[in-house]
Amino acid sequence: MTPQPAYLLHKRPYRETSALVDVITLEHGHIRAVAQGVQRAGSKSRAKLQPFAPLHLTWIGDGDLKRLRMMETTQSAVLLAGEGLLCGLYANELLTRALPVGLPTGDLFAIYAWTIERLTRPAERATSLRRLEITLLEALDAEPIFLETDDSPLDPSTRYTYVAESRRFMPVGAQHPGWDGRSLKLLARGDWDASGLAGLSKALTRAALAPLIGNQPLRSRELMQRLSQRRRQGRA
Question: Buried b / exposed e across 93-131, counting CB within 10 Å, b at 16+?
Answer without folding.
Answer: bbbbbbbeeeeebeebbebbbebbebbbeeeebeebbbb
